[in-house]
Bax inhibitor-1/YccA family protein (Hymenobacter luteus), 243 residues
Amino acid sequence: MEEFVPEQHEEAQPVLHISAEEAARIQGTFMQQVYGWMAGALALTGGVAMLVSSVPELVEVVAGNRLVFFGLLLLEMFVVGYISSRAFDMSASSITGAFIAYSALNGITLSVIFLVFTADSLASTFFVTGGTFAVMSLYGYFTRTNLAHWGNVLMMGLVGLVIASVVNMFWLNSVLYTITSFIGVILFVALTAYDTQKLKALAFVGLEDEATDRKAAVLGALTLYLDFINLFLFLLRIFGRRR
C-alpha cells in the first residue's frame, strides 16, 4: 500500500492571464493525459499479474519466497518515493520509464491475488472500484468546494492505517483486519476526490514546456493509479471470494 502527495514544482511560474474558458480547456486536456497514462498503467499491471500467475515457475519465485516478495514491495516503495521527490528533476523519458517499470513491477507482486481470490470476484471488485473511482474523481474535478482542508486529516488517517496494517501482519486479528479494510476504502475514496482536485493545478505547470507537461501528467497519473490500486485492494478484502 503506497500513497504520496506530489511535491509542488519549486521553480517560479509566470503569472498567467487567461480566461476561465481557456483555463478549463487546459485543465481538461491535461486530465485527459493523466487518465490516459493511468489507464495504460492499470492495463500493464493487470496483464503482467495475469501472465505471472499463469506460469507456475514465476509463481513459485514470487509467492513461494517471502524474501523475494517483500524485497519487491520495498523496491516498489523506493521507486514511488524517488519519482515523487525527483519528478521535475528527471527527464520526461526517465519519469515515463520509471512509471512504466513500476506498473510492471506492481503487476508481479499483485499476481498473488489471482491465486487467492476467484476470477469472478476479482472482476466484479474491479468494476465496483472503477465505478467508485470514476464518481469520486468526477466529484473532485467538478466540485466548487475546496477540498484542501481534507489534506491533513487524510494524511493522518493514512499513517494510522499503515501502522495498524503493519501491526496486524504480526497480530493476525480478524476484527482489526475488517476495521482497517473499511477504513482503507473510506480513505482512498476520499483521496481520489482530493487528489483529483489537487492535480488540476498541475495543468498549468508545463504550459510553455512540453517535457514539463509530460512530467506533470505522468506524476498525476501515478497519484491516481495508487488511489485506484489501493481502493481495489481494500474492496477486495471486503468483497473478494477466496478460492
In short: DSSP finds nine helices and no strands in the chain. The chain has one domain: 20-239.
